[in-house]
């Protein structure tokens, strides 16, 4: 099997080999090549020590990124615009920090270096000639589509607790099943999570949420208990424990009205996630859209004795904001996800409504000040449609109901793109206004009046129509002054 390795990577391998050292492509790049995917980056492992790596780099004109990772035996080399991580064969032990090794030492063989890695599919090496070095049956596990740890699962997770989150992420990205030993080992090592930094945990969660099979990884995250743990956040020389996603644990087994739902709340969430797009905001909105269901004050019972959750969208939006703020997401992501959760029920109630009802909704949204320009608001509505179609597809809705929702979603998006949010969305500029009205006129006030009239449907957002409206206003003003 021939593998496409970039020339800049080959140059480093050849340079190290010519200097008398072993050198291999290792880790995720080998896995991706075997899966027929293009690796995002290439890592090299060698029996050369850091000083020897730097010497070879200098002799061959490679750039060296100094002081980066050298405590861990890693040197970053640059060739042109490309950067490659070159690491000495090594092993390591861990202490209080559940992700960073407390001690690193060099070893002499590629087998020992590969043996310290997390999962068998990441513990293979590729030599210059295209030969695969596989001491732990990683290639076989790739073919069987199963995730296994290298050796004892407990030991791997004790060494680096982030590997438990990486397990969820790889399952989400690859859609693989997992060795049953992984879940049981995670449960036995949950106390290690407190040693992880929030930043690293959040990074893994975001990769999982955006992955192709996110529902599989999220299922393990909750079933194993990882979601219910806390990690540490350090700021201003103080450290605090931050709960990860305990709210999701409470959704498991929460029953819903069987007329509309075949799943409990958590399994409905997973089914919706399986039907969604892979954007960060939509993914998090799906995960949190029903987070308030079953809670006191929200859970009720109708006249037929069926469960209801009126108001779960409003309370859910508040909870989503609190959760994402707690996890230190950006303001942009927090605001968008909160808006999506808050509005996800409104989509369904408007499907059969008249266009004027939808228009009022969009107009109200445009005037709330949430969005700066039309494009931003329309993109939010596009994400809302993605959320709501995924949500509906995970219910007992018939195919025709889903099709009707999709058709409404397309109309909603078109109408949102036609609604101006800011005066800059109008098809007339301040300069053009200045050519029609006297210089002392307050152009900003006129633009604002035009915006309101277009939003109300009194004018269409066409340059000729807007110019005529301004000219008519100007003529009326002149007559009044006479």
UniProtKB/TrEMBL annotation:
CDD domains: NT_ClassII-CCAase. GO terms for molecular function: CCA tRNA nucleotidyltransferase activity; metal ion binding; nucleotide binding; tRNA binding. It is an enzyme of class 2 (transferase). Its cofactor is Mg(2+). Residues 23-147 form the Poly A polymerase head domain. Its EC number is 2.7.7.72. GO terms for biological process: tRNA processing. Residues 277-349 form the HD domain. Keywords: Magnesium, Metal-binding, Nucleotide-binding, Nucleotidyltransferase, Transferase, tRNA processing. Residues 175-227 form the tRNA nucleotidyltransferase/poly(A) polymerase RNA and SrmB- binding domain. InterPro entries: Bact_CCA-adding_enz_type3_sf, HD_domain, NT_sf, PolA_pol_head_dom, PolyA_RNA-bd. Gene3D superfamilies: Beta Polymerase, domain 2, cca-adding enzyme, domain 2. This is CCA-adding enzyme. It comes from bioreactor metagenome. The gene is cca_17.
């Amino acid at each position: 099997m021939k593998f496409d390795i970039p020339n800049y990577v080959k140059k480093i391998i050849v340079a190290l080999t010519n200097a008398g050292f072993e050198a291999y492509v290792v880790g995720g790049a080998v896995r991706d090549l075997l899966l027929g995917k293009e690796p995002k980056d290439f890592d090299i492992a060698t029996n050369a020590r850091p000083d020897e790596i730097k010497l070879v780099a200098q002799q061959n004109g490679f750039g060296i990124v100094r002081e980066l990772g050298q405590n861990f035996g890693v040197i970053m080399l640059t060739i042109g615009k490309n950067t490659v991580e070159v690491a000495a064969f090594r092993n390591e032990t861990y202490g209080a920090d559940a992700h960073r090794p407390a001690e690193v030492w060099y070893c002499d063989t590629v087998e020992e270096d590969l043996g310290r890695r997390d999962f068998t599919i990441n513990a293979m090496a590729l030599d210059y000639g295209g030969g695969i070095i596989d001491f732990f049956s990683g290639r076989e596990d790739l073919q069987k589509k199963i995730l296994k740890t290298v050796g004892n699962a407990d030991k791997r997770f004790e060494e680096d607790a982030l590997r438990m989150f990486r397990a969820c992420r790889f399952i989400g990205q690859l859609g693989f099943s997992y060795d049953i030993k992984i879940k049981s080992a995670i449960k036995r090592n949950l106390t290690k999570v407190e040693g992880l930094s929030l930043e690293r945990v959040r990074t893994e969660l975001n990769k999982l949420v955006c992955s192709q099979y996110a529902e599989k990884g999220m299922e393990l995250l909750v079933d194993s208990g990882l979601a219910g743990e806390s990690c540490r956040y350090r700021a201003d020389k103080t450290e605090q424990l931050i709960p990860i996603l305990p709210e999701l644990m409470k959704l498991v087994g929460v029953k819903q009205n069987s007329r509309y739902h075949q799943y409990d709340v958590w399994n409905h969430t997973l089914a919706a996630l399986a039907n969604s797009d892979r954007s960060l905001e939509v993914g998090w909105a799906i995960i949190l859209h029903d987070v308030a269901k079953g809670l006191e004050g929200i859970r009720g019972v109708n006249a037929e004795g069926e469960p209801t959750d009126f108001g779960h969208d409003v309370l859910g939006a508040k909870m989503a904001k609190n959760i994402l703020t707690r996890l230190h997401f950006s303001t942009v992501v927090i605001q968008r996800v909160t808006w999506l959760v808050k509005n996800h029920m409104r989509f369904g109630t408007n499907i059969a409504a008249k266009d004027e009802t939808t228009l009022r909704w969009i107009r109200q949204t445009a005037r709330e000040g949430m969005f700066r320009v039309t494009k931003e608001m329309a993109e939010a509505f596009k994400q809302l449609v993605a959320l709501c179609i995924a949500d509906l597809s995970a219910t007992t809705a018939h195919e025709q109901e889903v099709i009707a929702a999709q058709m409404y979603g397309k109309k909603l998006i078109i109408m949102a793109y036609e609604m101006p949010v800011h005066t800059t969305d109008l098809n007339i500029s301040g300069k053009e206004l200045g050519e029609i009205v006297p210089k002392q006129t307050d152009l900003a006030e006129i633009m604002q009046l035009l915006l309101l009239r277009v939003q109300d449907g009194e004018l269409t957002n066409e340059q000729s129509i807007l110019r005529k409206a301004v000219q008519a206003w100007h003529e009326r003003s002149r007559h009044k002054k006479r």
